[in-house]
């Protein structure tokens, strides 16, 4: 039986700037959604339908979680004034105000801390970096499940790492308890069709897929090809022609380029994390 027509081959090529692996990818609606992902930075003012938030959180809670610790929480922000304050703390990104929903994903060891206190136990394992890493990974897995669910409903999303610019101020705005850290934000809403997003090319698979052992033999050649692909993409969407190498060197070349996040360990300690 012939396979039904699908956008997947086009999205598969777009994801690699026309240089996708020479394979015949399987086709289904989930893959169409995932390979068609794009960041949306312009939203209509329309509110989300009743029940959508709860459905997105159910999808998030369906993600894997280490040892069933479920060491994450999410703060759903819909109040325009609070969204505005969070936008101000996140590099003044306009779409945070535009989107009807802004989700703040929290690496949350506080619930386990309270659980120990309720049973007169000090949970020493929470003082270690490993526990913080578990909470951070749990939050990221949950958030990505939410993104896929949102996009399957026709909604747009964009992650906001700039929420980490001012961790203590964000924690105060969200009333987070000690041992809880707002790791990143996620704007969710109806995309503005007047400002369409595009599928941004990613690194070629030869740079990220290593079979049996890690290898770098073709790295320079592959990066040069990707620099051209991303430069072409950036120029096509009106962002100027800057290649990936230039962007990455600029992004992590100095401590100042981290926009305040160079003090992250200090901030996490102030928020109550042991990080031993």
UniProtKB/TrEMBL annotation:
Keywords: Flavoprotein, FMN, NADP, Oxidoreductase. The keyword Flavoprotein applies. One of its GO terms (molecular function) is oxidoreductase activity. Coiled coil: none annotated. The keyword Electron transport does not apply. SUPFAM superfamilies: FMN-dependent nitroreductase-like (SSF55469). Gene3D superfamilies: NADH Oxidase. Residues 36-190 form the Nitroreductase domain. Belongs to the flavin oxidoreductase frp family. This is NADPH-dependent oxidoreductase. It comes from Falsiroseomonas algicola. The lineage of its organism: Bacteria, Pseudomonadati, Pseudomonadota, Alphaproteobacteria, Acetobacterales.
């Amino acid at each position: 039986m012939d396979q039904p027509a699908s956008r997947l081959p086009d999205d598969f090529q777009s994801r690699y700037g026309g240089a996708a692996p020479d394979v015949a990818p399987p086709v289904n609606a989930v893959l169409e959604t995932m390979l068609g992902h794009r960041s949306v930075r312009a939203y209509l003012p329309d509110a989300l339908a009743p029940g959508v938030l709860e459905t997105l959180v159910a999808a998030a809670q369906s993600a894997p979680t280490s040892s069933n610790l479920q060491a994450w929480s999410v703060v759903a922000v819909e109040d325009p004034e609070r969204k505005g304050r969070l936008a101000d703390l996140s590099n003044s990104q306009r779409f945070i105000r535009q989107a009807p929903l802004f989700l703040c994903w929290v690496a949350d060891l506080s619930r386990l801390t309270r659980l120990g206190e309720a049973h007169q136990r000090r949970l020493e394992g929470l003082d270690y970096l490993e526990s913080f890493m578990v909470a951070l990974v749990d939050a990221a897995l949950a958030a990505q499940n939410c993104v896929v669910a949102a996009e399957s409903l026709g909604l747009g999303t964009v992650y906001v790492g700039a929420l980490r610019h001012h961790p203590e101020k964000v924690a105060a705005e969200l009333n987070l308890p000690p041992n809880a850290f707002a790791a990143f934000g996620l704007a969710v809403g109806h995309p503005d069709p007047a400002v369409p997003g595009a599928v941004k090319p990613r690194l070629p698979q030869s740079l990220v897929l290593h079979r049996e052992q890690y290898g770098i033999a073709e790295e320079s050649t592959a990066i040069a090809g990707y620099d051209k692909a991303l430069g072409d993409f950036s120029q096509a969407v009106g962002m100027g022609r800057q290649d990936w190498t230039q962007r990455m060197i600029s992004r992590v070349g100095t401590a100042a380029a981290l926009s305040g996040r160079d003090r992250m360990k200090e901030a996490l300690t102030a928020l109550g994390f042991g990080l031993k």
